[in-house]
Amino acid sequence: MSSSVYYQFRSQREPLRINFDGTGISIFDLKRDVILSNKLGDGTDFDLSIYNADTNDEYEDDTEILPRSSSVIVRRKAPAKPGRGTAARYANANAPPMSVINGSSGTGRKPTDFGSGGYNNQRRPLPTHQ
Amino acid sequence: MSFQRQTMEAEPFDESDFLEFIALGGGNEVGRSCHVISYKGKTVMLDAGVHPAMNGMAALPFYDDYDLSTIDVLLISHFHLDHAASLPYVMMRTDFKGRVFMTHPTKAIYRWLLSDYVRVSAISANDSSALYTDADLSASFERIETVDYHSTTEVDGIKFTAYHAGHVLGAAMYFVEIGGIKVLFTGDYSREEDRHLNVAEVPPQRPDILITESTYGTSTHQPRQEKETRLLNLITKTILNGGRCLLPVFSLGNAQELLLVLDEYWQNNSNLEGIPVFYASSLARKCLAVYQTYINMMNDSIRKKFRDDRSNPFQFKHIRSLKNLERFDDLGPCVMVASPGMLQNGVSRELLERWAPDAKNTLIVTGYSVEGTLAKQILNEPSEFPSITGGGIKVPRRCFVEEISFAAHVDYKQNSEFIDLLNARNIILVHGEQTNMGRLKSALLSKYKDLRDSPEEIKIFNPRNSEEVRLPFRGEKIAKVMGT
Ligand SMILES: [Zn+2]
Ligand SMILES: [Zn+2]
Fold it and tell me: Where does chain A show beta strands of DSSP type E?
């Protein structure tokens, strides 16, 4: 069964949607899917936070399962340590693109090393003939 | 912090006494310039760029870190992508409701530059990750208002005036006044006389806060004449040796200046006749008319040239414009001026990959190279570099590599002289890589160390992205505001 959650970047006008199988998605997987589907790169450049759309409370536990049809706010933040954005741990996670959540959670997946590679040589070139 | 110490002695500052500054981009980096100042409930955003070493949303300033619906006025300093290319995104895809201003020539060139950006982004992104569409660009374009240099605009208690910044055609510094507090934002600026631009002006009033670029940190530019001689000698040597010269450029800005230099040199040196100079940028050709229209905004020498020759000085006599590489017969020595300036892709990259393996050829990097781009990496003279075609293919580098910067940014001497002339009590550094910005901050701090803890103390800030700078203001200025 295909389910969705709705998310909106804090500065954006329109909500977007992430589809997945099952009745819920972990915050970890949601973060990874947001990064992938918006092509936000390797994540060394930013931190990513997710908030409840009604209460504005941050989901701090990556293992928390968000029920389908929820609405959340996503915030791409300047990293606390420049070049060491914590979003890298989601961007680099090797998981099936849309993982099934079946009661157990995404805790088994350890954040990968996000310090290696560094900031500069991970950037992709800009598509422009300016 | 020292102002907190002062607070202890005097009456405590009220929340509304603080002017807040935040860099959403361009804090300890070059790229995606975007700064916000807010005071007494009025909010001004300065620039809305993208990062030249990144794609899609990752290239945006950290817009999620600010409530864009509170912005009253957005001022764009100049048309370069790192200052203007996320403007359609801000206007069409976010809660931003403010008014947007730029100078007339900036607006004219912005249109061409951004539709090119949209087109090229769409090709390489090949899906929906492009930030906005051409339709967004057109729809938002209508709502951009224009300002003249030296005339003051007032929007709901926010006053601002544009001054020449000397960086590219149309580039402006903005002198902004909110609730009696005066702020000067330099944007990218240059104080060096060149062939076509006015040098940056010193605004007539003393600002309380100066927000200045720090691209070149504490380094020193070679004098103009020496730089030109070095460039032309290197080109001549390469050509006489049977080699090709590649000069990557931003298609608008330093390209026009370089072409003026080359055209003049070819005019004065008949022995170079027959050696072709090419300029590969369809964008620049489209903007030729804009450069002609706004010659009245350039310096005296180019205006005189225009009057005397009765022709557009940007219609070059010795430079052939090249529409695309298919039409280029690569037969022997030549000079090729091609965009983009940081060799990310496109014509300049393609030619580099073709010419780099031959030791007779020369690459001359003429602009500022941002961290993470090939132009920056190749300055270290690697023995090979990755091909744009991907798949781990490497291109050997045997060609000669030289950096001769014609980037129209101030060096340390020019920046610190300008800072002295303005004599602001608070200086906020933006638009500089971390190391360069840090060096500039240390140099300025030691320069002004005798003023420390005096009423004339000069405070210097180099905030990271999204790190807030809060400056307390009160006293007569506030009283005056409340009286009005
Ligand atoms: Zn610029
Ligand atoms: Zn710039």
Answer: 2-9, 16-21, 24-26, 47-52, 65-67, 71-77
Ligand nearest to the CA of B433: 2
Query: Of chain B residues 237-296, which have a CB less than 8 A from chain A?
Result: 250-252, 281, 283
Ligand number with the minimum distance to the CA of B408: 1
Asked if B465's CB is within 8 angstroms of A128's CB, the reply is no
Higher-confidence residue: B287 or A28?
A: A28
Query: Cα–Cα distance between A101 and B336 in angstroms, integer?
Result: 57
Question: How many helices (H) and strands (E) in chain A?
Answer: 2, 6
Inter-chain residue contact B129 with A121, CB threshold 8 Å: no
- Lowest average pLDDT, out of A116-130, B46-60, B284-298, B391-405, goes to A116-130
- Give pTM, 2 decimals: 0.88
Q: Where does residue B457 rank: exposed (0-12), middle (13-18), buried (19+ CB within 10 A)?
A: middle
pLDDT mean over B18-36: 97
C-alpha distance from B47 to closest chain A C-alpha (Å): 16
- DSSP 3-state of B336: strand
Chain A positions in Cβ-Cβ contact with residue B339 (cut-off 8 Å) = 129-130
- Tens-digit pLDDT profile for residues A1-52: 689 999 999 999 999 999 999 999 999 999 999 999 998 988 999 999 999 9
Here the ipTM equals 0.83
The whole-number average pLDDT for the span A93-100 is 50
C-alpha distance from B146 to closest chain A C-alpha (Å): 23
- Is B409 part of the annotated catalytic residue set? yes
Reduced to 3 states, what is the DSSP secondary structure of residue B240? helix
Tell the residue number behind the tokens 């005019």, with chain if given: B267
B16 vs B39: CA distance, rounded Å: 7
Tokens in use for A48?
């990513």
Hey, what are B389's tokens? Answer: 């075609």
What is the Cα–Cα distance from B53 to B433, expressed in whole angstroms?
A: 13
What is the helix (H) or strand (E) element at residue B152, kind and residue range? strand B152-155
More confident residue, B16 or A69: A69
Whether B406 contacts B258, CB under 8 Å: yes
Ligand 1 centre distance from Cα of residue A54 (Å) = 41
Residue B406 CA to ligand 1 centre (angstroms): 12
